[in-house]
From TrEMBL:
Alphabetized SUPFAM superfamilies for the sequence: Thioredoxin-like (SSF52833)
Protein's name according to its UniProt entry: TMX4 protein
Residue ranges of coiled coil: none
Taxonomic classification: Eukaryota, Metazoa, Chordata, Craniata, Vertebrata
Domain called Thioredoxin: residue spans: 1-76
Domain of life from the UniProt record: Eukaryota
An annotated GO cellular component: endoplasmic reticulum membrane
Gene3D superfamilies, A to Z: Glutaredoxin
Gene: Tmx4
């Protein structure tokens, strides 16, 4: 995300709720400010904001679903990430 990004600002409250409620299902939710960590935006091929990745056991998958709280939770809880091709090279 970036603090100046309108789409990131629009999603901020949903992301904060997702992070707070995820504590109950034993996952960690975070965010990276690409203006503070520009190297990560290159490493993760970030070309649009916000960009969401799911990481599990060192395997990264890009989330391309709806940005609702319910869909974010479902992606994790229903293990929908298993059907997504991992990002190559990691």
């Amino acid at each position: 995300y970036a603090p100046w990004c309108p789409a990131c600002q629009q999603m901020e409250l949903i992301w904060e709720r997702f992070a707070k409620e995820s504590e109950h299902v034993d996952i960690t939710v975070g965010k990276v400010d690409v203006t503070q960590e520009p190297g990560l935006s290159g490493r993760f091929f970030v070309t649009t904001l916000p960009t969401i990745y799911h990481a599990n056991d060192g395997v990264f998958r890009r989330y391309r679903g709806s940005r609702t709280l319910e869909d974010l939770q479902g992606y994790v809880l229903e293990k929908k990430w298993e059907a997504v091709e991992p990002v190559a090279g990691w």
